Amino acid sequence: MGVIAIGYGFVNPSQPNNALQFIFGVPIALSGVAMHLLVFHLFKKNTLYTWIFEAIFVAIGWYQFRYVW
Predict the structure, then answer these.
(1) How far does the chain reach from its first CA to its final CA, in angstroms?
(2) What is the pLDDT of residue 37?
(3) One-letter-per-residue 3-state SS of 10-68
(4) Higher confidence at residue 46 or residue 5?
(5) Which pLDDT band, with edges at 50, 70 and 90, does 20 fall under?
(6) Buried-most residue among 8, 21, 39, 56 (CB within 10 A)?
(7) pLDDT over 90 at 11, yes or no
(8) Residue 69: its pLDDT value, please?
(9) Is the torsion defined by CA of 48, 49, 53, 54 positive or negative?
(10) How far is Cα of residue 44 from the mean position of the Cα atoms in its chain?
């Protein structure tokens, strides 16, 4: 989500609050990478369990951004 926010900010430079997309996109992207590394090592590098857990985590995040907020 953070990479998409940063990319969208670079594609549409004329939109208002463009700097906020970059400022908020970087921590979201870095926390996603940190969460991936933590889950990957937590499941002892088992790719199937990592994909399943991350798919559930992404679905919950998508639901929150789409319907809750």
Answers:
(1) 15
(2) 93
(3) HHCCCCCCHHHHHHHHHHHHHHHHHHHHHHHHHCCCCHHHHHHHHHHHHHHHHHHHHHH
(4) 46
(5) confident
(6) 21
(7) no
(8) 66
(9) negative
(10) 22
Distance, CA of 38 to CA of 1 (rounded, Å): 18
Q: What are φ and ψ of residue 9, in 5° steps?
A: -65, -35
Distance (Å, whole) CA 12 – CA 18: 8
**Side chain identity at residue 4, one-letter code:** I
3-state secondary structure of 1: coil
Contact partners, residue 21, CB within 8 Å, separation at least 6: 5, 6, 8, 9
Q: Give the integer Cα–Cα distance in Å for 10 and 48.
A: 34
Q: What is the mean pLDDT of residues 32-40?
A: 92
